[in-house]
Give the backbone structure.
Amino acid sequence: MTLLPVADALERLLDGAEAGPAETIPLHEAAGRVLAAPLRALRTQPPFPASAMDGYALRAADIAAAPVRLRVIGQAPAGKLFDRKVGAGEAVRIFTGAPVPEGADTILIQENARRLDDDTVEALEPAAAGRHIRRKGLDFAEGDVLLDTGRVLDPAALSLAASANHPAIAVVKRPLVAIIATGDELLPPGSTPGPDQIIASNAYGVAAVAKSAGAEALDLGIAPDRKEAIAALVRRALDAGADVVVTLGGASVGEHDLVHDVLTGEGMTLDFWKIAMRPGKPLMFGRRGPTRFIGLPGNPVASLVCSHLFLKPLLARLGGLPHRSDVGEAVLGAAMAANDTRQDYVRASMSTAEDGRPVATPFPVQDSSMLRTLAASNALIVREPHAPAAAKGDACRVLYLRG
């Protein structure tokens, strides 16, 4: 069969994927979440003309010929309105954030004032009208749109939402990813494997990829190679409302690769089954209504590479997040042989050349079972199908995995 190109597979996998429904959560739980609707101000900030400095509120005209003395008629601390009008020759001791009293039109900062006694202050320098006064609504006015739909709620956005008087906020519901490992040979970490068993590792890395894309991960454990066992976990995933069901292993062509039969039996329509990439050729994708099914390869490196390439952008789209490809330019730190018909993702270590260019050096052994090599890699060299042999120092593309 003809293998589907990587770009075509990604396009088909993302087709029709949209941000999920909204949910309202307390503001203190909203860090990193995505706004589901424009955020409008529920109040005006500041709600009154406010002093931007500690000093004295007075009339600018009264100190135009400074130095000059004024009568202190009271004080205005933050949170307490001075309810008398400031007249000619008068001043009010004021503190940062306090409402500016009626009649005053400037703030004489305390560094430019000398207090003579309880009732008298000397202005040492003039202050222009409006100086050191934050006008009402300087930051925003009630009803203003402060944040647009799709904004990730970073620290500044959260503080702005709080200032606008929102105790709770509407965000895009996080997509739920249900993860099902398959295989008689698999045992969970901490087990004592028999001579024909291995420790299951893929689910942990895939869950981490899902969480990095803003999703929630539900690990449903390991299903033995029996259709009824796999089907039971698939039904649990659907009952939990999973937006994406990820199966690990069992999607190839062997006698015990049962996942395809189970998923189609549960109503999945298969979209594609094999793609032209290495590692990760046996990648399966299908749908049942709004639920998407991704069958990842059982080989751990292939499983994680496919998660970065396909699962991560899908979850970003479902979660309302922008997805930016982490592909960049580099030069090769070692020669590479010509490539065959599949797009190759070669584990590599990154360094910096003397001229500042990033250098990608491929690891000499690229077996798709070798997690140690993947953990040591901070990038994958992307080799197009039929790419010719390349020499050390030649330009290349890299998919960054971490800093």
User: Anything to note?
Assistant: Residues 300-318 form the longest helix (19 residues). The longest strand covers residues 343-352.
